[in-house]
């Protein structure tokens, strides 16, 4: 490790947050400005420790210490160029990655070997976002001047992070990338899932302009299997990439789940996004408004946190979130749990729902208390019910946020594309061509291959699959 004690004088500085009271009223970014002074101060704390654990823990293996050095030197455009070499959506990952579990969790400055707080990790995510935001503002765009047209064309189904990552690599290698999506805007769950207060929609729209400028073609409002036949793509394109996500909602299987007033998480979030953005001319039927209501959210992942914080912003009378494990064992990002707490969400840890109560509509949720037992096959301690611990908490509305199951369309199965036992598309990373399915010219990646996961992992798989397609097409 190089001797560099300067960092001791510069503490970790997170981008300052707006006060929780103000955040609840406004529907905008929760962070205030992260300026060049803070960015270079944070970048200058990097020890260049010789073992860049941050790079390994980052799923796209960003060249983090190298771009930190460029930021410290004030060479922002070179940093943007470098950050785009490994990540197709750096400004988005910088905003939505759970950095505490990834790059920042691995930073040498993060914790001591005994687990106690050391100096605080470098704010890698905030710097990654800062680099691209600033470079775009200064007019920087990826350099496509050396690209030679290969004469090949590839259809991409799904304009989510996986599809966009795939398109980025293909056009950079002279392959015509044509992206189809059933939604009117690109982004997949970035646009129709993750709320505006975590990721501004204008950021995704800007990325659309950047990709179009690079030559990516988007065919939106086009559902494959309904508006256009999949067979047509197989006939007309040299290869096809599937990045269609996972969209079957998981349910608890208890009484009362179908009562009026019970909502699945994603339709609730999407109705709110459409309403906020004015994307649906008349949404009186579909918009779900929790103003003045007592809301109970069931689940402990990032989707549950998004529902909690959306309900707070809608002016709910109260928002409680019940999760069957304790706080330490929640799957959601710690940052999101902290934000939700600051904004007024009441957490009910170690509580498992066993029924929704009501006659004509929801009146409450029946919960039992749990304690953590032995670890299951994945090493997670299983919650066990404490006998006689039933309680009913009053509720006007309930949101079920138990996650998603793969939803491969029927036309895919007619082609004999192999699925695993959980109905995820089989597309191995270590096959002859990475992410190739059992049908030679069809590749796949993202949530439909790995199950619900993270934006950055979907981007990585889309990029890797594009490399597989390039090898397959011999480009
Ligand atoms: P998707 O983003 O789901 O995109 C799939 C696209 O395929 C969609 O646009 C869909 O319309 C399109 N499509 C599907 N079928 C067809 C068809 N037949 N024809 C045409 N188009 C089709 N991850 C994080 O890293 N950080 C977070 O903070 C975070 N928050 C989340 C919050 C919520 C509410 C949810 C639901 C997920 C969150 N995630 C988060 C997870 C992340 O969004 C996903 O892992 C990621 O979007 C998966 O990318 P993908 O490209 O595989 O699929
Ligand atoms: Fe960290 Fe995510 Fe950026 Fe990687 S992509 S450096 S994990 S914020």
Verbal overview:
With 475 residues, the chain is α/β, with parallel strands linked by helices. The chain has a five-stranded parallel sheet, with helices on one face. A five-stranded parallel sheet has the order 6-14-7-8-9. Strands 10, 11, 12 and 13 form a four-stranded antiparallel sheet that branches. A hairpin with a 5-residue loop joins strand 11 and strand 12. The longest helix has 19 residues. The protein is globular. The N terminus is likely disordered. Flavin-adenine dinucleotide binds next to helix 9, helix 12, helix 13 and helix 17. The site of iron/sulfur cluster (SF4) has 15 residues, from helix 6 and helix 8.
Give the total of beta strands.
16
**Whole-number average pLDDT?**
92
Q: Give the overall silhouette.
A: globular
> Level of helix content?
25-40%
Task: Report the sheet-strand fraction.
Answer: 15-25%
Poorly predicted sequence stretches spanning 5 or more consecutive residues? 1-5
Write down the Rg: 23 Å
């Amino acid at each position: 490790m190089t001797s560099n004690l300067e960092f001791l004088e510069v503490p970790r500085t997170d981008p300052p947050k707006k006060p929780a009271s103000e955040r609840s009223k406004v529907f905008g970014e929760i962070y205030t400005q992260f300026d060049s002074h803070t960015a270079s101060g944070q970048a200058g704390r990097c020890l260049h420790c010789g073992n860049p654990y941050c790079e390994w823990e980052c799923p796209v293996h960003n060249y983090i210490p190298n771009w930190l050095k460029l930021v410290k030197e004030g060479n922002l455009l070179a940093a943007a160029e470098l950050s785009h070499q490994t990540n197709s959506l750096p400004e988005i990952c910088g905003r939505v990655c759970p950095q505490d579990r990834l790059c920042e969790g691995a930073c040498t400055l993060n914790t001591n070997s005994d687990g106690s707080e050391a100096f605080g990790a470098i704010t890698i995510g905030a710097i990654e976002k800062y680099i691209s935001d600033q470079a775009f503002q200064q007019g920087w765009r990826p350099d496509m001047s050396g690209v030679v047209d290969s004469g090949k064309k590839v259809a991409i189904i799904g304009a989510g992070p996986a599809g966009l990552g795939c398109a980025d690599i293909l056009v950079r290698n002279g392959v015509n990338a044509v992206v189809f999506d059933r939604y009117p805007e690109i982004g997949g769950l970035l646009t129709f899932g993750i709320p505006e207060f975590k990721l501004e929609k204008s950021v995704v729209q800007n990325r659309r302009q950047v990709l179009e400028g690079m030559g990516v073609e988007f065919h939106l409002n086009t559902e494959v299997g309904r508006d256009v036949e999949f067979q047509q793509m197989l006939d007309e394109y040299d290869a096809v990439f599937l990045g269609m996500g996972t969209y079957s909602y998981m349910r608890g299987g208890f009484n009362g789940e179908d009562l009026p007033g019970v909502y699945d998480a994603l339709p609730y979030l999407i109705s709110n996004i459409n309403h906020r953005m004015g994307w649906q001319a008349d949404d009186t039927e579909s918009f779900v408004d929790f103003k003045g209501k007592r809301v109970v959210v069931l689940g402990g992942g990032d989707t549950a946190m998004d529902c909690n914080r959306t309900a707070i912003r809608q002016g709910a009378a109260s928002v409680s979130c019940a999760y069957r494990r304790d706080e330490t064992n929640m799957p959601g990002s710690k940052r999101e749990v902290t934000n939700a707490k600051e904004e007024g969400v009441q957490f009910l840890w170690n509580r498992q729902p066993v029924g929704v109560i009501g006659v004509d509509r929801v009146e409450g949720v029946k919960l039992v208390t749990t304690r953590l037992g032995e670890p299951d096959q994945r090493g997670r301690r299983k919650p066990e019910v404490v006998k006689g611990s039933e309680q009913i908490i009053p509720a006007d509305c309930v949101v079920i946020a138990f996650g998603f199951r793969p939803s491969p369309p029927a036309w895919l199965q007619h082609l004999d594309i192999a699925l695993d036992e959980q109905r995820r598309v089989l597309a191995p990373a270590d096959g002859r061509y990475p992410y190739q399915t059992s049908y030679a010219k069809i590749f796949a990646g993202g949530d439909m291959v790995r199950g619900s996961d993270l934006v950055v992992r979907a981007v990585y798989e889309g990029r890797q699959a594009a490399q597989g397609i390039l090898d397959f097409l011999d480009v």
